[in-house]
Amino acid sequence: MGFYDVFANFYDASLEPLYVEYRALAADALSLTSSAVVLDLPCGTGQSFEVLASRVGSGGTIFGVDASAGMLQRAAARVSKCGYSNVHLVQAGAESLAAPQLAAAAGRDTQVNRLHVFLGMTVFADPDATFENLWELLAPGGICVLVDVHAERLGVQGWLVNQIARADIRRRFWEPLERVALDFERRHLPFRRQHGGQIMLARGRKP
Questions:
Q1: Which one-letter DSSP state was computed for residue 73?
Q2: Class of CATH domain 3-30+43-205
Q3: Tell me, what DSSP letter sits at residue 36?
């Protein structure tokens, strides 16, 4: 059993309260419509499903992707409890995710037009290559939103965050998007010491 399979058992109660308001801000930045096809990863236990589903309604589609079976088990329970018929779960690594996997999950061919990466870019083993793969899945004109934490220098809290999340918050996580996107913007979100650094939102559109 992997680290995140175990982490899934206490993530929501212990850490999710630190990120609830930021998930709503990320959903707003995606400019969601009823025709949106959202790729949400790593989706974890499905913490963003509520804010995403409330904005796309029954006409949109959400793909929740995570490499952890334990996280997806919790996400599936959330989908069932909330009755989300348009949320499809896929167990896959972000670095190798491919369009046929999404089509198989949805039962039809579909094209992603919203990419939502929440607390992923500081965790991916190879963030540049992983982002490149995800960017390929995004349709031209689609919108990408990244939310993550950055610290130029690690203090004690930042070190703890890295240890707990198996992350590296020293990464300038927005740079892969900044290099390729149109209308790129990056902004600081409300600061909390518990994050170990400055939480930020980066947004851009695919040419």
A1: H
A2: alpha beta
A3: -
